[in-house]
Amino acid sequence: MAIITLTTDFGIGDYMVAGIKGAILKQLPGIQIVDISHEIEPFNLGEAAYVIKNVYPDFPEDTIHIIGVDALPNEVTRLLAAKIDGHYFVCADNGILSLILAELKPEELVEITLGRYNAYSNFPTRDIFVPVACHIARDGLLNIIGNNTNTYKHLNFLKPQTKEDKVLVGTVIYIDNFGNVITNISHKVFDEVGKGRTFEISVRNFKFTRILSRYSEIVTDFNNEVNSHGEKMVLFNSAGFLEIAIYKSNPKTVGSAKSLLGLKIGDNISVEFK
Amino acid sequence: MAIITLTTDFGIGDYMVAGIKGAILKQLPGIQIVDISHEIEPFNLGEAAYVIKNVYPDFPEDTIHIIGVDALPNEVTRLLAAKIDGHYFVCADNGILSLILAELKPEELVEITLGRYNAYSNFPTRDIFVPVACHIARDGLLNIIGNNTNTYKHLNFLKPQTKEDKVLVGTVIYIDNFGNVITNISHKVFDEVGKGRTFEISVRNFKFTRILSRYSEIVTDFNNEVNSHGEKMVLFNSAGFLEIAIYKSNPKTVGSAKSLLGLKIGDNISVEFK
Amino acid sequence: MAIITLTTDFGIGDYMVAGIKGAILKQLPGIQIVDISHEIEPFNLGEAAYVIKNVYPDFPEDTIHIIGVDALPNEVTRLLAAKIDGHYFVCADNGILSLILAELKPEELVEITLGRYNAYSNFPTRDIFVPVACHIARDGLLNIIGNNTNTYKHLNFLKPQTKEDKVLVGTVIYIDNFGNVITNISHKVFDEVGKGRTFEISVRNFKFTRILSRYSEIVTDFNNEVNSHGEKMVLFNSAGFLEIAIYKSNPKTVGSAKSLLGLKIGDNISVEFK
From CA B38, how far away is CA B42, in angstroms rounded? Predict the structure, then answer.
């Protein structure tokens, strides 16, 4: 049977997440439910998109991903169910789909009509997304629970800017549990603009002239590996984005990229190609 | 097979929650275990009751709810298993049952005798509640693992007070992940006292004269919806309690009801009917 | 089918934990995955070892425990799979195995060779540990995915020190969700050194001359049990270690052992036998 995943900004202290799970299990006893994250910053679509986009390919095809972030329907915000890249996504038409899709096109897309009568529920993730997800999990067709549509709200995914084919200016889009700082500069864009030229990356007052392929490459002597703890580096992370990292970062001891370099979401990072 | 849910104040960093799950799976391989919350404030029965009471109906009947909050048995505190509203609850006789029941009566109630010999375990949730829950999940009868009883500790559920049939004084009982502030004034009590009269709700220095039926009702122009971010409102939440909320609250940006109105658990909110 | 447990320092906000789960479910649909903790302090092997050592016996035999803490392989750090005490552990050769084993010997131990070609992945927990764990869950032999080895890195587990057969000096190794403070003095060591003599335990300026067998033993009058809230005590916790605790501790109200006694990890506690 299909898997249902949950990505929300509900936190894990309230009863909302358990309410969603109970409602799913009432319809589909035994189905596997996987938490992706419930720690999305409230209403932060960019963060939600970054998280789900980087993890959905790890799941089997036909997995159903419920996104309970900024999901209240209203006069102009519809609720959507989409098939993208072999996976199903159930979310509000608040723009998140455009961030997840990037250059992909949805294979199928419907405006949800199921549950139209409780469309003004204050808990649509449980009251509308759950029955939709369960319908899909039972191999139901999307056009049974919604009307086909071709449109969805577009948000400008914060793209890195190129200046005179020489400078690439990116933005911090995410900070992970280790305080490592992730930018919106993908490996692909870096290569397209850089064309193999040498470069200098500027992060506030710090300059970097090489990009490592793995964290441990910063270590020069593994028999005294502890000497490298706390060293700064730049690499492409496992999601393919340029990341400023600290080797074995620990906010309580050696510090993290976030704290040591004083970076926060929205800050700029620039790459100058020679 | 039945589902077992867990509500505790153990947090998710320690090994306690996993210990409970391991112990359940040792007895019942493959059973579905759902976390309700492990973030209950230590020993806070009111918070635990609010959470479990609002979520248990989302689960299928015969679900078994383990409540590992303030669960150490002692000379005067027994351990209980109860059937209420088609669900099973396993908890200490510390008063939480009276908060969950409110106006309901238990369909069955036993004082747990199973595991009497390790009744002084420092980890009764694992050592006593787990075997009891597994017994119930195997369709075992309650009176096999305990003795029928009619009594349980009563706590005064903090009820809103009525003054001269004109003023209703409620209390903040919960603050959710969005910083929205929930009071103990239920829709039912509000209607019984208000009898349809107009009203003014006082929350510190703020006055409200209408109660919305959904969050998005605060928005007047959906094409400029962002203008409404941060607006204060009062509504009945999905659990049926009067809630003071901020539209698209975010503690890091527009603020939350908790921070903007300076509210904390135990504060009073009053409603004056005209 | 086997159970796979996860212990990491990834936190629950990022997509890493869900990525691991997705990767497992791609290979083994329906397998049960249990989170032990994802809140280990970054790279803290002592904390990870304390948590997993105290909880693995609660799981059925043949459970597979993935430890994603400090798991990046490098020129000198191999990846290991071990069978210990009827359970499987998959981790890096960073010393954690020696902390888990203590006086045990591994029943089987291999250096992982599976996935050697992506051995420099920046996400080895997903890319290497998951296929290894799934192989074991399918009853695969360890020597198919690795080469037998007899060696593993040893860390000096912080042992309590004995002075002149009279004084036992222990160290705070863990602080739990209630702020209770756990030392490395086991019941066994205490008995071996103390030989039944009377004793005085010194914790900063506080002295204790008895060890309770359960938290509620501090209460003298259960009808006025609230009078005991906040009282200090020493007992052996459910894992068998000497713990300094506060009865019904709550950081927000009566305080905790951590806050009231000003203790942190690494602090000393001494026991003087008379």
Answer: 10
ipTM of the complex as predicted: 0.93
Residues linked to residue C64 through DSSP beta bridges, in sequence order: C4, C88
Interface of A with B in 60-119 (CB under 8 A): 70, 72-77
pLDDT tens for C44-102 read 999 999 999 999 999 999 999 999 999 988 877 899 999 999 999 999 999 999 999 88
CA dist C162 → A29, A93, C187, C193, C266 (Å): 56, 66, 14, 8, 17
Is residue A95 over pLDDT 90?
yes
Encoded amino acid at B81, one letter: A
- Nearby residues of A113 by Cβ (< 8 Å), 6 or more positions away: A145, A146, A147
> Hey, where are the domains in chain B?
3-148, 161-273
Test C120 with A5 for CB contact under 8 angstroms: no
Q: Tell me how far apart the alpha carbons of residues A123 and A128 are, in angstroms, rounded to a whole number.
A: 8
Confidence of residue C118 (pLDDT cuts 50, 70, 90): low
Contact C26 A215 (CB under 8 A): no
d(CA A149, CA A154): 14
Quick one: average pLDDT of C215-228?
A: 88
Q: Pick from B10, B18, B72: which is nearest to C177 by CB?
A: B10
What superfamily would CATH give domain B161-273?
Bacterial fluorinating enzyme like (2.40.30.90)
**CATH (residue range A3-148):** 3.40.50.10790
pLDDT in tens, C165-199: 999 999 999 999 999 999 999 999 999 999 999 99
Helices and strands of chain B, counted as H and E runs: 8, 15
d(CA B59, CA B62): 9
pLDDT tier at A117, thresholds 50, 70, 90: low
For residue C25, list chain A residues with Cβ-Cβ distance below 8 A: 3, 32, 34, 59-60
Taking an 8 Å cut-off on Cβ atoms, the answer to whether B59 and A22 are in contact is yes
Q: Alpha-carbon distance A210 to A215, whole Å?
A: 13
| Residue owning tokens 């009590």 | B189
> What are the distances in angstroms from CA C265 to CA A12, C106, C174, C244?
27, 29, 6, 13
pLDDT band at A119 (very low <50, low <70, confident <90, very high): low
Using CA atoms, how far apart are residues A119 and A215, in angstroms rounded to an integer? 48
Taken in order B6, B7, B9, B12, the sign of the CA dihedral is positive
Set of chain A residues whose Cβ sits within 8 Å of the Cβ of B222: 74-77
Q: Which residue has the higher pLDDT, B257 or A66?
A: A66
CB atoms within 10 A of CB A10: 25
To test the contact with chain A by mutation, choose from C15, C38, C74, C128 the residue with the greatest count of A C-beta atoms within 10 A, namely C15
Which of B18, B26, B121 is nearest residue C5 as measured by Cβ atoms? B18
**Per-residue pLDDT reduced to its tens digit, A171-195:** 999 999 999 999 999 999 999 999 9
- Asked if the Cβ–Cβ distance from A25 to B32 is below 8 Å, we say yes
Residue window 5-44, chain A: list those with CB within 8 Å of chain C: 5, 12, 32, 34-40
- Dihedral, C79, C82, C87, C91 alpha carbons, nearest 10: -20
Report the distance separating Cα C273 and Cα A19, nearest Å.
Answer: 54
| Secondary structure class of A139 (helix, strand, coil) | coil
Query: Does A14 contact B215 at a Cβ distance shorter than 8 Å?
Result: no
